[in-house]
Amino acid sequence: MLIECNSLYGGIKSVPKEKLVLRPAACALIMRGATVLLLNTRSTGKYQLPGGGVETGERIEDALRREVREETGIEVEVERFLGFKEDFFYYDPWDEAYHSLLFFYACRPITFDLARDEQIEDGEAEKPQWITAESLWAEDFQSHGDRILAFLRPQQ
């Protein structure tokens, strides 16, 4: 059985079901006034939310705080659960496919000094920066742009 996955570089990649790795992940929507904290995806230059994989035995909120710290250098308070998204994702550089379970959370920054690129402990994430939320389009994001914008602009 082949599963269609969204490719890092766009498009669809069909992979055998046996190749999929189950990967729960937590994503942080961190607001500061009218800005949101985003990272660049090194391979494509598109934006992504801070966050990443939940390790076996790790609580989701603990993983979220760890991932935010590793990718941005700041500490956050996890405020509330925003939503869930299932995804099938193919990571071209490693020829790996994931059945992702994405948990989105609203977070409040506790510290504000962003990490420099050489301090970031992630192969794909770089350039943490505060971006004006109103300037963003769904296409600016690596994935799930419509979903992220719905969290950012719930009244629109």
Could you describe the 3D structure shown?
By secondary structure, the protein is mainly beta. It has one domain: Nucleoside Triphosphate Pyrophosphohydrolase (Alpha-Beta Complex), CATH 3.90.79. It is built from 2 helices and 9 strands, in the order ββββββαβββα. Strands 1, 2, 3, 4, 5, 6, 7, 8 and 9 form a 9-stranded mixed β-sheet that branches. The N and C termini lie far apart (40 Å).
Summarize this entry quickly:
This protein has 2 helices and 9 strands. With 156 residues, it is mainly beta.
Features of this protein?
156 residues, nine-stranded mixed beta sheet, mainly beta, Nucleoside Triphosphate Pyrophosphohydrolase, globular
Percent helix: 10-25%
Topology-level CATH name: Nucleoside Triphosphate Pyrophosphohydrolase
Query: What is the distance, rounded to the nearest whole angstrom, between the alpha carbons of the first and last residues?
Result: 40 Å
CATH class: Alpha Beta
Strand coverage percent: over 45%
β-strand number:
9
Low-confidence spans? none
Q: Please compute the radius of gyration using only Cα atoms.
A: 15 Å
Average pLDDT over all residues: 94
Number of helices: 2
Largest sheet descriptor: 9 strands, mixed
The appropriate CATH architecture is Alpha-Beta Complex
The CATH homologous superfamily corresponds to Nucleoside Triphosphate Pyrophosphohydrolase
Which structural class fits the helix and strand makeup? Answer: mainly beta
N-to-C SSE string, H for helix and E for strand? EEEEEEHEEEH
Number of domains: 1
Oligomeric nature of the chains:
single chain
Shape: globular
